[in-house]
Amino acid sequence: MLLLSLTLFLSFSNTFVYAGSHTKGQNCTIGNNRLQFGTYQFHSDCDAQTYCSSQGTCELKGCRRDQYPFGYPPEAHLPPKCPSGQFCPDESDACQPLLPVDSPCQLNRDDQCESPPNWQELADTSKYGRNVNGSVCLNNVCMWANVTVGLSCEVENTAYVAYAGTTEFIDIVSRGNCQTGLYCDSQSLVCIQTRQLGETCDADKECLSFNCLSKGVCGPSADLPNHFGIWVYTMVGVGIFGGMFATLITLFLIHRRQRDQEREKRLQYWREQNAFRQSIMQMKEIARTSILSLPGGNGNSNRSTVCSRAGSEESSTPMIQHSVHKSSGLRQQCLSDDNGSIYDEFMMQAGQR
Ligand SMILES: *[C@@H]1O[C@H](CO)[C@@H](O)[C@H](O)[C@H]1NC(C)=O
Ligand SMILES: *[C@@H]1O[C@H](CO)[C@@H](O)[C@H](O)[C@H]1NC(C)=O
Ligand SMILES: *[C@@H]1O[C@H](CO)[C@@H](O)[C@H](O)[C@H]1NC(C)=O
């Protein structure tokens, strides 16, 4: 429905733009006054600010219907709106008094007709505005919307051309003179109670909500705002926070794995260095024992664990000295087969100093 009104509105404004272009004082032909096909927008030779007078010239309009009429610059002087009890016709030449029942009126201009004495009772105050103050203009005749259930009524079907995207379709608007809450059935021509939500229907007018869905049941009013249940908000909230926490936890796990890999690498490096150092120590010991076992050695050959002052190492193993870290010269180094004992000794000595 909304799309429909929008497309109708757009085609209306297009018609306005391409409507009569004659300005004030130029010639026009009254016979050219007409309702445009499809939109039923009033059209004349004259432009938006003028109407075609009986003298055949365009004259400034004498009244307006809209608060902000189309075709006027912002600061322009506007023709007046009509006072209560009068109306401004489609031509907008001058205000006229309301028309009594059975007088000729213009298409869809319920406001041109005099209201019934009980207009407060009959007026449709809903947003659909199926009558104006209880009066309707059907088939160009003023009447009152006062027919009750089961009585014969009049109906007026108008086929508008509507557009959905690029495709045209016909939108039939059916109006009647039944009281509010009833509709005039086009076949039997009697007033029938409008249907509630979910009941079967053939046309919008049959529904209280004025919206007959394509599956043939009355749907909620087409301009009703869309409401979402609490669960939708809950799901969205859970989704947002769940996503956040999932990201955090994933990052934490990834970083933990990277940290573990780094630690493993360092441990590996430490083991390599340790093994390297030990092989150097072994080389040193082998070198020393081979030197000591030479004939003319100083007789220390039968010690199983080699303890030596760092100072004496310098003289006995000068070629290894560079690869081992600089010794203070005070440290006692004890070498054994046990893997960790060298380091224990180092730690202990470092603590003592
Ligand atoms: C307007 O109408 C008059 C007589 O009807 C004619 O002489 C004149 O040429 C017309 N002017 C224009 C602009 O059509
Ligand atoms: C309906 O009638 C009352 C009283 O006559 C008037 O004040 C009011 O403007 C009318 N409403 C419309 C929409 O014409
Ligand atoms: C209903 O309206 C018509 C005019 O449309 C009028 O002639 C008739 O008297 C009204 N009936 C009632 C009961 O008011």
Describe the structure.
This protein is of the alpha+beta class. Among the domains are: 13-95, no CATH class; 277-311 and 333-353, no CATH class. Helices cover 29% and strands 15% of the residues. It is built from five helices and 14 strands. The strands form seven sheets. Strands 1-2 form a two-stranded antiparallel sheet. A two-stranded antiparallel sheet has the order 3-4. Strands 5-6 form a two-stranded antiparallel ribbon. The radius of gyration is 51 Å and the shape is elongated. One 2-acetamido-2-deoxy-beta-D-glucopyranose is lined by residues 101, 143-144, 146.
Give the helices and strands, then pairings:
Blueprint: H1 2-17, E1 34-35, E2 42-43, E3 50-52, E4 58-60, E5 86-87, E6 96-97, H2 119-122, E7 135-138, E8 141-144, E9 155-164, E10 167-176, E11 182-184, E12 191-193, H3 230-292, E13 307-309, H4 310-316, E14 332-334, H5 341-352
Antiparallel strand pairs: 1-2, 3-4, 5-6, 7-8, 9-10, 11-12, 13-14
This protein binds 2-acetamido-2-deoxy-beta-D-glucopyranose (3 copies).
The site of one 2-acetamido-2-deoxy-beta-D-glucopyranose has 4 residues, from strand 8.
